[in-house]
Design goal:
By secondary structure, the protein is an all-alpha fold. Helices cover about 55% and strands about 5% of the residues.
Length: about 280
């Protein structure tokens, strides 16, 4: 494979298998009491659906009920801030300054990504900066404990069951190792904090090494994010501010309006031109 070639990768082995399957029939719960039994039942069903016994055991043998994840899921306070408060809390001015520097330092990479996906550097850098401080902090929560807890939790069981299967997919196909799969409280992974389903669906090999590694490879992380935005309808050359065609793709990144507006504003400031 030619180094630097932006190749779309997908590891749909398990994800495709569960796409038409009924939801896991295990009993959900809103506290830790039933979690161990749920995990054991889920392991059996995962194997029955085609996940290898080895992967299931490696992923889930040591999972625990993630109380921090439940707390975060119930109290997402930052999205209740005003736009001005959110921009200040997220350090928008710092992201803009560093984003401009990184855009210059990685000009060739951003040029390749825009040529392939139609997405300019600005919004990619805005997302990168807000999600992990440009890869400086990826989170330290065990992804499988977080995802299993949320799949067991009654609030959004089906959604996070799908995420848990996708995480098993990532492990089974060798995209990441078990010990690497740590991140934010909801099981997000890598420099852009992709949920596992999106990691599988939109993961792109930006550095040409034959795998998708959004933890160590900024090229993979950025190319995957551009591929994600394209998947949500990004149109090359169109604007991405509120009311412009590509703002709809930004809305696909995060449901919080304040976050969407922040991506657009920070991206515009980094790009230094309209959209």
């Amino acid at each position: 494979m030619v180094p630097g070639k932006l190749k779309f990768m997908t590891a749909g082995l398990v994800l495709l298998a569960i796409g038409t399957s009924p939801a896991f029939a295990g009993q959900c719960g809103n506290d830790a009491a039933g979690f161990p039994a749920w995990v054991e039942a889920f392991k059996q069903e995962a194997v029955a659906k085609g996940v290898s016994q080895r992967t299931v055991q490696e992923a889930l043998a040591g999972v625990s009920y993630a109380t921090k994840t439940i707390s975060l899921d119930r109290n997402q306070k930052s999205f209740k801030l005003s736009y001005e408060q959110f921009m200040q809390k997220r350090g928008a001015s710092t992201i803009i300054s560093k984003g401009r520097t990184l855009k210059k330092q990685n000009a060739a990479l951003f040029k390749k990504i825009e040529a392939r996906y139609g997405v300019p550097a600005g919004p990619l850098l805005a997302i990168w900066g807000m999600e992990t401080g440009f890869g400086s902090f990826l989170g330290n929560q065990d992804a499988f404990s977080a995802l299993a807890t949320l799949a067991y939790d009654c609030r959004r069981s089906e959604f996070f069951e799908e995420q848990l299967y996708a995480a098993l997919n990532i492990l089974e196909t060798g995209q990441l190792e078990r010990a690497e799969m740590k991140g934010a409280g909801h099981g997000e992974i890598g420099q852009m904090q992709f949920l596992p389903v999106n990691y599988v669906k939109f993961g792109a090999d930006g550095d040409g090494n034959g795998k998708v590694d959004m933890i160590r490879s900024r090229a993979d992380a950025l190319a995957s994010t551009a591929n994600y935005l394209r998947g949500y309808g990004w149109q090359p050359g169109a604007g991405y501010q509120p009311g412009e065609p590509n703002f709809a793709a930004i809305e696909g990144w995060n449901k919080a309006q304040v976050y969407q507006k922040a991506i657009a504003a920070i991206g515009l400031a980094i790009d230094g031109e309209e959209g």
